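quick one, 319 residues, struct below
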Amino acid sequence: MPVPTLAPRFDEWEIELHGRRVVYRIARPPAGSGPPVVLIHGMLNSSSHWRSVAMNLAGDHTVIAPDLIGHGDSAAPRGDYSLGAHASSIRDLLAAMGIDRASIVGHSLGGGVAMQFFYQFPQRTERLVLISSGGLGHEVSPMLRTAALPGVSALLSLTIHPRLLGALADTGRRLRERDVRLGVHVQALARALGPLESAGARHAFLQTLRAVIDVHGQRVSATDRLYLLESMPTLIVWGERDNTIPLRHGRHAHAAIPNSHLRTLPRAAHFPHLEDPDGLSEVLREFIQSTRPGRIDDADWGAVLSRRSPPRRVGEVAA
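---
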């Protein structure tokens, strides 16, 4: 009698790192393990938003999706919410899990975290995937610029309450029942805003936001260091209807990163993992299967930097 194949599960786990609760979700292939893929969510998202993509990839890969500090069900302490701090937390989580190297996938803010992870820990990165990523240009939606203004914390505390969140969730459900694609986004917004009912979560959200965005736009850019990805398999994915971060950021990054791949999803806006999870999963699987894992050691890193930035005496004219 054939043994039935068990469907992948997207189980929620927790771990204490440096005295703080970190929550992550993991999906494993039927064989029990596979090449690790890390999915990093964006602002006002959590690991749960990756469910469809994670379950799709789990046929062949061990998929890990952390809740960034201050997001989802992870702790929201007072502290550092910079891209570097988020990247270090993911490194520590993977190390505690016994995972040395992985393909790193980031969406929006998570794309900035993914690039920072590569920059800080290139030896731990096998591939890099940037989905509608921040950190590749100045422009960003007016809503996010407005959220960086002083006084927004008080406004959030007045407007976010269970009745509002319930109305958003109900609106999203009704839109989806009528096959209106916006319903997915409205439901995701309702889920994301839920944790902001607590003062600690609102503080964490605003600290993370203001680390990368101000009233003028994105204040952190990786464009001056994209050349470092020359030997790292890199995929850039963008929703063709994205009005939050323009597609041209992805096109410019593709032109700046040697041997990179660019794929666009016509059905998606800024949240491809929610708006077209099947299309995104297919693109991710194709990229991972068609590329060899990158490997950058300290000597390789030094060679790239010295080739681009040779030292010279102060006052000496560059050749």
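The radius of gyration is 20 Å.
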